[in-house]
Amino acid sequence: MDKLKLYIGLFIAIVLGVAGFIVWKWGFWMLIRIILSLGFLGLTLMLGFFLALTIYAESWKYALMLLPFTAISAYGTYLSITWQKLKIVGGIIAFFIVAVAFGIWYISEPDLSLADRFRSAEKLERMGRYKQAARKYEKAGNYKKAAEMYLKLGWLESAAWAYEKAGEYAKAAELYEQLYEKEKDTYYLKEAHEYWKKAGDMERAAKALEKYAEEEPWFWEDVAKLYEELGNEEKAREAWQKALEYYKKEAEEEGVFWEDVGNIARKLGMEDLAREAYQKFLEYCLKEAEEDPMWWKHVAEAYEYLGEKEKAEEARKKYEEYRQRIIKANEETSHFPGEEKENKE
Fold first, then answer.
1. Measured between alpha carbons, how far is 248 from 251 in angstroms, rounded to an integer?
2. Neighbours of 298 (CB within 10 A)
3. What gap in Å lies between CA 226 and CA 41, rounded to an integer?
4. 312 near 300, Cβ under 8 Å?
5. What are the TPR repeat spans here (predicted)?
């Protein structure tokens, strides 16, 4: 960062030095002449490049738009270099300033025609130009009215976004549920869940998440926890049962999930299934520990689940020994060459 500041400072110093030399040698107006000549030349080259590009792409509409600007810029370059008709040069500069300002103003509302830009949002709404009215309402910060316009257009996702911006989270959630029914995309259910939560309606949030979990089953555990928070033990138990079924299937393919099976089974009072799952989790961890000693930590956890305290302690010691070896190895490799010799001296 210091080098960057140095380079920037050096560059500015060089530019100021060159400018000062030009003023000292040939006067202030020579400096202005050079600046204008280089500026117009750069602009002409840039416009010429884009003009050539649009002609090559056979985009005749944009080529015709660029042609007069390129010609005017080229004329400004000629007048600046020859230093004549300075009033025209000033007019060309003013023309380009106005053109840039107009361009920025125009692209700020690309969906509006020139006439619509001078109409109020209310008038556009009365004219039935709901898309344009929505854009006007958005710009004014009236997102609730913008949402109403989008609803009239049938643009549910845009309406949901606008209601979110307006803080109308419940309405946004309802629209996301409608979008799910229409599109059958589970993304909308997840969004509905989040916005019901923001609206403070946890019952509706739980129902949306439950529907989501029917298609994305790894979320059944979250559904169960949410129903527990709501005090709905019956629905929570149903969700835990479904989470258990999901993890049992996963555990058949990847043994690490036996821990989840054991935890949920124990929670549901299925002690025999819990012990069986923890035993399988232990076998999986022991096998992994043969290749990676880090797994002794999980071996200890598995023994804890099974109530075998002594074996858990033995496994924990093995994990601690492994951890200490890693720490020592890291300390040794972190020394720079000759550092150890210097420390001894």
1. 5
2. 20
3. 66
4. yes
5. 217-250
For position 1, what pLDDT does the model report? 52
| Phi, psi (deg, nearest 5) at residue 198 | -65, -30
Place of tokens 């030009």: 22
Kindly report the pTM of this predicted structure.
Answer: 0.65
The angle formed by the CA atoms of residues 339, 343 and 344, to the nearest 5 degrees, is 120
pLDDT over 70 percentage in the chain: 93
DSSP state of 295: G
Distance (Å, whole) CA 239 – CA 221: 7
Say how many C-beta atoms besides its own lie within 10 A of residue 23's C-beta: 14
Q: Over the stretch 42-71, which tens digit does the pLDDT of each residue have? A: 999 999 999 999 999 988 888 998 999 999
3-state secondary structure (DSSP) of residue 231: coil
What percent of the chain is helix, strand and coil (3-state, nearest 5)? 85, 0, 15
Neighbours of 144 (CB within 10 A): 15
What CATH number has the domain spanning 254-332? 1.25.40
- For the chain, give every domain's residue range: 2-107, 254-332
Can you tell me the distance from the alpha carbon of 267 to that of 216, in angstroms, rounded to the nearest whole number? 22
Is the Cβ–Cβ distance between 47 and 70 less than 8 Å? Answer: yes
Identify the pLDDT of residue 110.
66
User: Is the separation of the CB atoms in 219 and 212 below 8 Å?
Assistant: yes
Q: What is the pLDDT of residue 8?
A: 87
Specify the amino acid at residue 282: L
Helix (H, G, I), strand (E, B) or coil at 154: coil
Alpha-carbon span 167 to 169, nearest angstrom: 6
Q: Which two tokens stand for residue 235?
A: 């629905």
> Who's near 160: CB < 8 A, 6+ residues apart?
147, 171, 172, 175, 176, 179, 191
Q: Which residue has the tokens 């529907």?
A: 211
CA 169/CA 164 separation, integer angstroms = 5
The Cα diameter of the chain in Å comes to 99
